[in-house]
Amino acid sequence: MARRHLPPLHxxxxxxxxxxxxxxxxxxxxxxxxxxxxxxxxxxxxxxLGRPVFRRLTRRVELTEAGQALARLADEVFSTLEExxxxxxGAGPRPLVLGALPTITSAWLMPRLDRFAKRxxxxxxxxxxxxxxxxxxxxxxxxxxxxxxxxxxxYPARAPRIELQMVADWTGLVAEPLFPDVLVPVCRAELxxxxxxxxxxxxxxxxxxxxxxxxxxxPDWLRAQxxxxxxxxxxxxxxxxxxxxxxxxxxxxGVALVPEVLLPSGDALxxxxxxxxxxxxxxxxxxxxxxxxxxxxxxLRAWLLEEAAADARQ
Length: 314
Fold this sequence. Notes:
11 strands; 36% helix
């Protein structure tokens, strides 16, 4: 058998940690070595490749094009090695960690997870609820569901803004569309004249429930229909997440503006308007392209797309 021409594996481990954490010092802390040792490992790897893998900037480092390609390869190799060695130890596959937004987790994912568990009883899925930019790393947060604008895509100028940042670094990530972010105003029927939807101008004069993670939602939604107003006023309710805003609307505190996908069937709330205003962004399933063929990620991706498509047909 011919001798393998492999890169220096000790150096490759240091590079993988530095690339994943975007920091030599953070990589040193994870590996239990000094920052100088990680720096030397990177130099060894660059000498072997004959090209730089990092650009050394004043206070940070960033991957070169060659470094990005090597990072994707290293991630795939180390993930495969991790899974295989776990099976040999009899530890079984490690759980797949899905990071999702709080309201998507409670209102959309949780009611469906029993179906996923029945279809894939061999897979363990763990949920991590957060609105922070997703930082995908094996064993920490493997995949994510986030909402926002896709880099490079153009959206209508008047579409309501989404200020949440989906990820900190798009390198090597795939964004699979799940469903659009269509904002719908909802309230208890008794707040509406005759219980019927009203025009945007009339909505602007009603008590509005605001959500701090989408502070521009009401002004942008009204502006898209040529109506001014909607900014939070003293005394108007404001909540940290959409599920809180929905609960306030169920208690009759006002009109909440929420993504359509979060509205359960048979809810006590009714639509306060017939307008359907898409935001400047969508909901996406995010995963590293290098791990697309891993059975757990492939299964979750297929199931999420199936569930999203079923919602769209309703």
